Amino acid sequence: GPFRIDVVTIFPEYLAPLRQSLLGKAIERGLVSVGVHDLRQWTDDVHRTVDDAPYGGGPGMVMKPEPWGQALDAVRPPGTRLVVPTPAGRPFTHAMAVEWAAEPGLVFACGRYEGIDQRVADWAAEAGPVSEVSIGDYVLAGGESAVLVMTEAVTRLIPGVLGNRESAEFDSHADGLLEGPSYTRPVTWRGHEVPPVLLSGNHAAIERWRRAESLRRTATRRPDLLAALPEDALTDADRAV
Ligand code: 6GU
Predict the structure, then answer these.
(1) Has 175 been annotated as catalytic?
(2) Which of 90, 114, 135 to mutate to test the pocket of ligand 1 (most atoms within 8 A of CB)?
């Protein structure tokens, strides 16, 4: 069946872009299915309360565990990965996107305020994998935009979602390096030229040049990625760049 994505949030309309563009096409074609759920449907009080003051004191509000328990009972099939976006999470990476895309689906729990009572993630881990993840070193108001980011990174790796023309195998990060620059017509634009090797017709020379540009760009912009490559990832020719 389709790759199943469920999102629980207090701002369901924020997830409308999930049905647009590449993911919208994948839904239409039956490759992906999406459910967006308002957490407040699992509250019991007239005020539909989802948050409360933190034990121990301090600023902000914490999301109460009871609505989350009922929400996950309703939408999370046992064994399905629960993803909790949080600035206090492990960094989300392309390698995680690859791993998650091979699973049957994902459930996202979007926190607001100062996050969700920690017992929700602790309890949820008894029924399947739980990933508390961050999309970068900055603070967002809530997890909803991070869910848009992660669902796009994951679903474009699902077989059939991308066409052959936009294949994922040569993307930045797929081999641990950044992609080098790309060019199209015209050959001269406002005094700037396309690198002549790309016009040479020499496919071996073009591949060597692209590899060198990829290495140079990664060394300049992301030296941490170069340092993290496995020992055998670089050839002698690579090291000469
Ligand atoms: Cl996943 N959530 C929030 N609220 N802030 C973030 C984040 C996630 N990743 C970076 N900052």
Answers:
(1) no
(2) 135
